[in-house]
């Protein structure tokens, strides 16, 4: 059975990393959410300027519900901003809005890791839904081949998480280059924007790390 000491440790590490990075991003996001940018623009206005500066006037900006639900949809070419980012005039709002525009720029420029990530979405969705069933069936039926298949499916999910990392770092790099390079934000505010985007990136790093640990555990389990 997979419920031994190392499994409990894995659950503990997963919880600590998961809750820790979530708490850290919320803390940083709210802290810089109280600091207004000197230009007084909303996140939506900052996003519009960055998109236009990159020749992307055809990319639309829409508002979505929820907190930290901001994303770019490459199928519709829409930058979706949460309420607080869309209308907010804080450092956090500009940072997140321009990060999402960074994804729009990646899409327009054919940035390879982003293309690869997009291509991986359908098979990885399938793999992430299947691997647990295959593993349980393999254990139940005592079929080692099925257990190995589950490990391969799970490894595909990790590849996706690893490809996500350069895509996220690059979107933040593009956002900070715009915010800083155009005299948009003074250096103290750029520092705040960097803190917000770094804490957001940490959640992706933590998720990938947890998955790798889980894979190591699965491999050990498979060998037993
Ligand atoms: Zn992103």
- Residues in helix, %: over 70%
Major sheet details? 3 strands, mixed
Tally of DSSP helical segments: 7
Distance between the termini: 10 Å
Please report the total strand number as a whole number.
3
The tally of structural domains comes to 1
Bound molecules: zinc ion
Neighbour order of strands in the largest sheet = 1-3-2
Task: Average the pLDDT over all residues and give the rounded result.
Answer: 92
What form results from the Cα inertia axes?
elongated
Structure description:
The longest helix has 38 residues, at 144-181. It is elongated and about 65 Å long. Helix 4 (91-109) crosses helix 6. A three-stranded mixed beta sheet has the order 1-3-2. By secondary structure, the chain is mostly helical. The chain is built from seven helices and three strands, in the order H-H-E-E-E-H-H-H-H-H. The N and C termini lie close together (10 Å). It has one domain (5-223).
């Amino acid at each position: 059975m997979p419920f031994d000491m190392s499994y409990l440790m894995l659950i503990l590490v997963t919880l600590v990393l998961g809750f820790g990075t979530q708490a850290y991003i919320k803390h940083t996001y709210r802290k810089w959410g109280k600091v207004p940018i000197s230009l007084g623009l909303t996140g939506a206005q900052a996003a519009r300027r960055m998109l236009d500066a990159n020749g992307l006037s055809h990319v639309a900006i829409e508002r979505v519900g929820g907190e930290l639900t901001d994303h770019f949809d490459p199928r519709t070419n829409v930058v979706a901003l949460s309420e607080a980012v869309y209308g907010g005039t804080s450092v956090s709002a500009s940072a997140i809005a321009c990060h999402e525009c960074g994804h729009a720029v990646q899409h327009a420029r054919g940035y390879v890791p982003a293309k690869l990530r997009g291509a991986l979405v359908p098979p990885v969705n399938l793999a992430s839904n299947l691997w647990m069933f295959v593993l349980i069936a393999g254990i139940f039926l005592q079929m080692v081949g099925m257990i190995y298949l589950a490990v391969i499916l799970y490894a595909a999910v990790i590849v996706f998480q690893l490809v996500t990392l350069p895509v996220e770092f690059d979107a933040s790099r593009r956002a900070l280059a715009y915010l800083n390079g155009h005299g948009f934000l003074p250096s103290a505010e750029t520092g705040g924007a960097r803190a917000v985007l770094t804490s957001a990136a940490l959640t992706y790093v933590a998720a990938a790390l947890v998955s790798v640990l889980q894979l190591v555990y699965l491999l050990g389990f498979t060998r037993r």
